[in-house]
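Researcher: We plan to redesign the surface later, but first we want a full-length starting point. Tokens attached.
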């Protein structure tokens, strides 16, 4: 079995998410892979949510109460711990985040015989494992005033 826990706030653009999941060879729903996408869904695009949901991801909201900005790291840590509690040697856990604190989860995974990898879109681009996604070009608006002379 394999679990992929995606910190969608670090890589929330749909094209970035798609590139990382393609890199992991996850292009369609895979019954042997549990995909968790964790983040504050009020700041993540609907396009990203649709992409992940189409792959069977569990979309977990990390801002649980009014006034609580974000508990993404806590939710990721708990999700990883719960999954590791049921995992068996030979299983694999991937956490997609820029946060190096989750490398500590890799120490626990290794002690249980579980393969661990922490990836991020930025790191994959920096090491040229994937090509950077093209940013959509934005047109500048003059606020409806027309041309200046």
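Model: Full-length starting sequence:
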């Amino acid at each position: 079995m394999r679990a992929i826990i995606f910190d969608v706030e670090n890589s929330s653009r749909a094209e970035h998410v798609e590139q990382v999941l393609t890199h992991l060879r996850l292009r369609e729903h895979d019954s042997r892979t549990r995909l968790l996408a964790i983040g504050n869904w009020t700041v993540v695009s609907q396009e990203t949510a649709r992409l992940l949901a189409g792959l069977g991801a569990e979309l977990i909201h990390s801002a649980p109460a009014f006034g609580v900005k974000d508990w993404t790291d806590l939710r990721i840590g708990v999700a990883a711990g719960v999954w590791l509690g049921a995992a068996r040697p030979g299983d694999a856990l991937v956490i997609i985040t820029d946060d190096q604190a989750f490398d500590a989860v890799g120490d626990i995974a290794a002690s249980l015989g579980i393969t661990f990898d922490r990836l991020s879109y930025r790191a994959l681009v920096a090491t040229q494992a994937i090509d950077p996604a093209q940013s959509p070009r934005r047109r500048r608006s003059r606020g409806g005033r027309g041309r200046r002379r």
